[in-house]
Specification:
single chain, 71% helix
Length: 260
């Protein structure tokens, strides 16, 4: 396996070398995922307690076959491993595309990319303590007197894990806003002018969350809209892209032919 390192902009790598680097990063990510999955399976009872905490005290997930407890625990273990290793996976995805960025672009984007794991963790924490409990409370009490409501373990744990991962990824919205404004692709004024379209996109993304109901959708939208507005304030505070970056991005003017 080739040594994993971040290539520089000036490196000239062949297609085989790019594929070899991609293979190395995929293998490293897979090994990390397997190791974390083994640790999660070793502590599967703790993982189950954490996942069951948002449920009411008198509700216990059900299984309907002899193999379902084992398979459900295995599924939750995999979700937990993905959740814990996602920052590593995001790092390797960024490091693989690093050669496409100029040194100036890297200098602009590196401080912004530090926020990626911070915002992801913030999204997961918000989903665990706010979104999931609100969704469970609303869904379990909706027409509760008309149904014998039970929770199947496999479906609940999938809903639980996918909601945490999805909200964590949605909390990356400020990263995209700061990146496109710092690179000079759009200006904060243009984003503010089209704020209603941004809020519409956020509403659609919140609606696509697993098992989302109207109440949970609104709860998920609130921090995303606040993050969008905060990103606009930060983009205005950081100012326009630097002169060196604008010179890198602007196409070179064609030479003027002499008429003499």
């Amino acid at each position: 396996m080739a040594r994993i390192r971040a290539a520089s902009f000036d490196d000239r790598m062949t297609l085989v070398e790019h594929l070899d680097e991609l293979r190395s990063r995929l293998i490293f990510s897979a090994v990390a995922l397997v190791i974390v999955a083994a640790l999660c399976f070793w502590q599967n009872h703790l993982l189950l307690d954490i996942a069951n905490a948002p449920l009411p005290d008198d509700v216990e997930p059900l299984t309907f076959s002899p193999s379902e407890p084992f398979l459900t625990t295995l599924t939750l273990t995999l979700y937990g491993a993905i959740l814990l290793t996602l920052p590593i996976l995001l790092y390797h995805a960024y490091a693989f595309v690093l050669p496409a960025l100029t040194p100036t672009e890297k200098r602009v984007l590196m401080p912004i990319l530090i926020l990626v794991p911070v915002l992801f963790v913030a999204g997961v924490v918000f989903a665990y303590f706010v979104v999931v409990p609100a969704a469970i409370k609303f869904l379990l009490n909706f027409n509760a007197d008309q149904f014998n409501i039970q929770i199947r373990a496999r479906e609940y744990y999938s809903f639980f894990a996918l909601t945490l991962i999805s909200v964590g990824i949605l909390f990356q919205i400020p990263i995209g806003i700061l990146a496109v404004t710092k690179l000079g692709i759009v200006t904060p004024a243009q984003l503010a002018k089209n704020r209603r379209y941004a809020i519409l996109i956020i509403a659609v993304l919140a609606m696509l969350l697993p098992g989302t109901d109207p109440v949970t959708m609104l709860i998920s939208m609130l921090p995303l809209v606040l993050l969008f507005e905060l990103s606009l304030l930060l983009a205005r505070a950081l100012g326009r892209p630097s002169r060196s970056l604008r010179s890198d991005l602007e196409p070179a003017e064609p030479p003027v032919e002499s008429t003499g």
